[in-house]
Structures are given as C-alpha cells and as structure tokens.
Amino acid sequence: MAERSVVIVGGGLVGSLAACYFAKRGWKVDLYEKRQDVRQPEHSCLVEHRSINLAISERGFSALRRLDPLLEARVRELAIPMHGRMIHALDGKQTSQAYDVFGKHINSVGRNALIRVLLDAADSYSWVTLHFRHELVDVDFDARRATLRNAETGHQLDSSADLIVGADGAYSRVRQRMMTKVMMNYSQTYIEHGYCEFSMAPINDAFAMDPNHLHIWPRGSFMLIALPNPDKSFTCTLFMPWRQFDQIKTGDEAVGFFRANFPDALDLMGEKSMCAEYARNPKGSLVYVKCTPHTYKNCAVILGDAAHAMVPFYGQGMNCGFEDVEKLDEIMLATLQASGSESTETTQLTDEQLLSALDEYSATRAADTDAIVDLALDNYVEMRSSVISYSYLLRKQLEGI
Ligand code: FAD
C-alpha cells in the first residue's frame, strides 16, 4: 500500500466523515479537533451554540451509504422521519403539508449522537489518530505542515502530511491561511436574524405533538420551528430579527411575546421552562460564506462550512458538507481509475493526479455550493411567510374538491 497521509483540521460532522473516507481509501489520517471528545461522558453535552438536532436528508444519507451501508443503517436507526411540515396557525389550527407525494422525507437526528457514530467509525481504523484539544495555529501549505497547540500542555507541535483538509467550520483558519496563497474570491454575510433554542418536554411519556413532522409557526418576519428527539421531546428554535430579541428583556416580556405569537407552543413548553431558557440559552448569529477556489495546488482542500457556511433554513449545511466528502472521493477514485488502475486505494494517486482531482473538485463543486447557499437564504422567506399562503391555497383547493 502506498504511504499517503492526510491532516484533517476539525473533528465536527464533516471532518469526522472525511476521516472515515480517507481511511477507507488507505490514507493515514491525523485528525485535530480543538474541543474535547464529545464521546467522553463528562463532555457529552458539548454542542456549543449549535442546533441540538438536525434534519438529515437523502443527500447526507447518500454520503454515509457510499462509505458503508451499515453506517447509514445505524444513523437511520437514530433518526426520526419527518414526512412533512406541520403549519401552526395563530388560532392553533394545524395543517400538514407532505414533502413528497411518493413519501420521500427528511429526518431529525441528534447532532451529538451523529458525531459520536462518525467518530467511532473513524476510530475503528487503526491508521486513524484522533487528537482532541488540539487547535490549529498555522499552516504552511507548501511545506505541507500544520502547526497545532495542545490545550492540555500549551505546547505547539507540527504535523506533516501529503494533504491538508480544512473542515474547521464557518470561521475556518485553514481557509484564512489559504486566502494568503490563492486568489480566493470570498464573502461572509451575517443576516439580521438570530436564533434561540427551547425544549418541549414529553407529556405523559409521549411526544407533545406529532413526531413525524417538522413543526413551523410562520409569523411573517420571524418563526418558531420544532424537530423531534428520540427521548420524545422536541427542540424548538425561534428565528427572529436581533432588534426583536433586544426588545424582550424580562421573563414577562418573553411570556407576552410567546402568548401573542405562539400560544399553543407556549402551553406545551410551559411558561416557566420557556422563560428560564429564554434567559439562559445563547442567542446564535447566522452567517453565510461563499468562496472559490476550495483547493490550493495538490496540498489542501476545504470542506463543509469552511467552504460554504449557509443559513439553516434549507436544512442542508451538514448534508451539503457530507456531499462534499462524497464528491471528492468520487473524483479522486475516478481520476485513479482513468489512469488504468483497478485499485480503490486513492493513496496510489501520483502528485499530478492528485492535483488534477483537486482542481476538478474545486471547479465543479463551488458552483453547486454557491447555489445551495442561495437556496438556503430563499427558503427562510418560504418558511416564515410563504408557507402561510401555500397552506391557505391548499385549503381552498381541498374545499373546492
Ligand atoms: P462544524 O460543525 O462547525 O465543525 C467544525 C469543527 O472544527 C468544530 O468541531 C470545531 O471545534 C473545529 N475547529 C474549528 N477551528 C478549529 C481549529 N483552529 N483547530 C482545530 N479544530 C477547529 N445542517 C443540516 O444539514 N441540517 C439541519 O437541519 C441544520 N440545522 C442547523 C440549525 C442551526 C441553528 C445551525 C446553526 C446550523 C444548522 N445546520 C444544519 C448546519 C450544520 O450545523 C453545519 O453545516 C455543520 O455543522 C457543518 O459541519 P462542519 O463539520 O463543516 O463544521
């Protein structure tokens, strides 16, 4: 087996999937993650300002399946199907809108549960080493060397590899460093809305609402959504302009706001719990990033949010990051096989072939990821506002039958 190695920066959803893919193709993998290992019981609730659960779609499952159908099956076991949206009107009336006439659907999955499965899968290869509490400090791409700081000891260390993968999220340091090497077109935009999460506990050991829907309370310029969890709770997320968050300062004001806009959800959450969470839970900002290229020579590539952070309204940020990993693998394998090799070990790519694969990846992928970033933005208007008129039209249509 040819010796090829990769350093992956970021052990989030995309970095851990990338570690599995490279390992499957024979690469020696060193993954560096600045946080603790979420699989350790004492760090198991480390979600850090991100959604507790996520919608995983066929795009995400496809990437898991290509890696290992058993892994896909394991994630499907953790996921709760959501066959449509449930629109909650102000008067409490609920309207179901199926996602697809043939039953295609999205699924709710816990972020931490998913990441644990992926880290375990990466760990199962003896040639993968996971380094937690190691933060990337700098990269010298041409020397193919990453410099990291060990948070336990404070010491810096260098890690060298044939390829450096940046899967270090929306504020990627790998991307920042790459910008100094290539003529990268780049934009970063914050939208004027933020978000805050709330929990809706089970009632009498049962889901408080239908678990097989993504629940939406569309209210024009803002909205509440809820996704089901395996413990029969829901995680609700309020998306709203910052100026409105700023106006709600006291518990009474929060209750007044929920009572006026989401009375049915407030009854299910309970005033006390909602108030405590409004005061305690962080309010997150929403940013999107576009950049091109996503690669530097045959030395580096950025994947996932590092290359294309998007607003969450299309539920595709992680799914799209998983697809990045799948596409990169497809292109690397096709490049190898076009050279006449029947091997599936992409470690056998020559330097020139690796360059050609990364060039092709960047040239084809950036247009797709830019498009999905735009679609995600458009879908906010759809979710918080257009669904109301759609449900109205649908009702009218049904009344006419
Ligand atoms: P991240 O998850 O950000 O992981 C990056 C990792 O890199 C982190 O673990 C971080 O600690 C580490 N890191 C960062 N810097 C360094 C460094 N210097 N050194 C070492 N490590 C570093 N997507 C969906 O597909 N479906 C959804 O339903 C969905 N809902 C969402 C809801 C909300 C509210 C939000 C905010 C996002 C949502 N997303 C959703 C998007 C999804 O969360 C992201 O697209 C996904 O997490 C991206 O994964 P990633 O691995 O690229 O980046």
From TrEMBL:
The gene is BNA4. It catalyses: L-kynurenine + NADPH + O2 + H(+) = 3-hydroxy-L-kynurenine + NADP(+) + H2O. Residues 5-343 form the FAD-binding domain. GO terms for molecular function: FAD binding; kynurenine 3-monooxygenase activity. It comes from Coemansia aciculifera. This is Kynurenine 3-monooxygenase. One of its GO terms (biological process) is 'de novo' NAD+ biosynthetic process from L-tryptophan. Its cofactor is FAD. The keyword Ligase does not apply.
